[in-house]
Inverse folding.
């Protein structure tokens, strides 16, 4: 069988439960979430190499200059991006890369990588999204309103993605995500070698 | 949410376990296998309307003339085909149609229905396919050889299908088929209405 090295792009409003969903997905599938690099300062409890690769601005710009970044974008005076070496390391383990990335970055990656599997995760309703953001209790009301406004901007781009996973119930959303991974593993392109071997064995 | 009325085309060599697989798939998903119409005589135990719709040649040709057949083909001096009304009845129940159909018929349906989900099921090896056909004990050796020869002719067309399900182990094959159905139900086109409602609710 051919080596399956999938690139899965996941976007969706903040508060949709992407992190919780992915924590389950990696247990049940051959997916691994790529760790982004950023120039922003670590927040309390964040670990270098786990939550982010924390880079200085100079180091990040050197990575850009050396074409070491698979994708990157400036955001709120900082850079965020993904190292090519990060993806290669995941693929070398025979796993699929999940790139959790916001819409504008995702559209750029899609244009360059039409083979990517693209999933947009959706809150049941905007009211429920607000409720979930408030429940976290970590954000100020104005930050929550900013995130809601951002969600409303992002949602119309969902139709540029191949799949929509509605996060009405976490278990169902995880199950849908895993089914998408399993279905994509059954794509004909991954069977070409084995079919060839079957035919020549006749 | 939009009405999901999928058309799933399943092909694969005789002896691959398509029937056994589908019997499980219909229990676990919203799939229903369409019953073909044929002009051939019923064999022992076959029930009209369950295994096939048994038609006279005159009635079948009338259905063709009235454009009542979704697809049909002559095979070994008999007609085989699918009534449009059969598919409509399945869709009316909110279920997906599974059309189990041989390769040439499938290619014709694919050309006319590019929205169809297409799955080819594959035996682990040709030796195993022979073993399974022999184990059935219902076929003469020359019939088995004819089926093997037919399989070898059909397998190269597998790359015209979107998905390959290897039937190494029945449970895994059923699981793969169900995952494909579930993933396809998450296609963005089926969420357009719900996304529209989410946006207008803001």
């Amino acid at each position: 069988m051919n080596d399956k090295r999938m690139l899965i792009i996941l976007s969706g409003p903040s508060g949709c439960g992407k992190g919780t969903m992915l924590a389950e997905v990696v247990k049940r599938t051959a997916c691994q979430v790529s760790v982004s690099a950023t120039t922003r300062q670590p927040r309390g409890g964040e670990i270098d190499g786990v939550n982010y690769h924390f880079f200085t601005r100079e180091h990040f710009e050197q990575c850009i200059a050396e074409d070491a970044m698979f994708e990157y974008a400036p955001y709120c005076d900082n850079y965020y991006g993904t190292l090519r070496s990060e993806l290669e390391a995941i693929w070398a383990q025979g796993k699929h890369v999940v790139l959790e990335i916001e819409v504008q970055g995702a559209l750029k990656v899609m244009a360059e990588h039409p083979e990517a599997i693209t999933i947009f995760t959706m809150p049941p309703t905007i009211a429920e999204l607000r409720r979930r953001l408030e429940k976290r209790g970590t954000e100020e009301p104005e930050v929550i309103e900013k995130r809601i406004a951002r969600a409303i901007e992002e949602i119309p781009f969902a139709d540029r993605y191949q799949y929509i996973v509605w996060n009405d119930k976490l278990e169902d959303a995880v199950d849908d995500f895993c089914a998408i991974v399993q279905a994509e593993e059954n794509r004909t392109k991954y069977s070409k070698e084995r079919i060839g071997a079957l035919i020549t064995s006749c």
Summary: The first strand of chain A starts at residue 7 and ends at 11. Strands of chain A lie at 7-11, 31-33, 37-38, 53-54, 69-75, 78-83, 96-100, 117-122, 163-166.
